Amino acid sequence: MPLSPTADRLATLPTRIKSALWRAADLPCMPHPTVPTGHAELDAALPGGGWPTHCLTELLSPQAAVLEWRLLGPAWKHLARPRRPLVLIAPPQCPHLPGLQHAGITADQLIWVQAHSTAERLWATEQVIQSNDFGALITWLPQARPEQLRRLQVCAQGAEGVVFAWRPAVAQWTPSAAPLRALVTAGTDWDLQVKLFKRLGPPHEGVLSLPGVPSPLTALLTPRLAHPSTFSTGAVLSSRSVPSLSEPPHAMDRPVSSPRPSHARHLSLTH
Asked: Can you give the pTM of this predicted structure?
């Protein structure tokens, strides 16, 4: 059967243009490399099967310095292979080097940039992106206007590393030029609840439940600590504990409430 005129024209397009076209119902093939997230279920839901390079990825959570390393830690073994640095800009807490070393980041790979004001954070982020000399960049931006995020997205299009911007959950109600946006909240026990509310391709339905135990603690947790809700009596996670995407911004600003049967529940790779 001969090709239709439309298909015939598509076949003659340059490769770089064809790679940027896809059916709206399908996940696109990314024109640039991606990095596995370390979570098979999340990889399957992301275009290209991992964290994208050459763009800005925006991750939102109700409270800073709680879920970052639990979500991103499994990807470090892939990001560390080129021996390029991990750059942290204005982390809410001091990075805990022994914990990062368990995740595959050595001391000579870690660069920690202290910045206080929004202008300083944005300037430092832009300078690092333009240097194009990093495996991953994580910047914490509690406040940023849409035009400022658009500028970072334009800069990130020339970066070979992965660029993450961590922002508060209320930011989901404001526009952003980031091609990939996700809301990350704490689920039952150690689980992470990830909602992909913006991605290239069709809308993502539902919420991904990912294991969130930091790798250094996997062999140390007893069954009671690994699954505290199973053993606790009367401590049932309310349906109101995790903010709903339909709640107004002021409700999303509240920290996630969950049972705290043990201090190990809130251990992370930073302290």
From this structure: 0.79
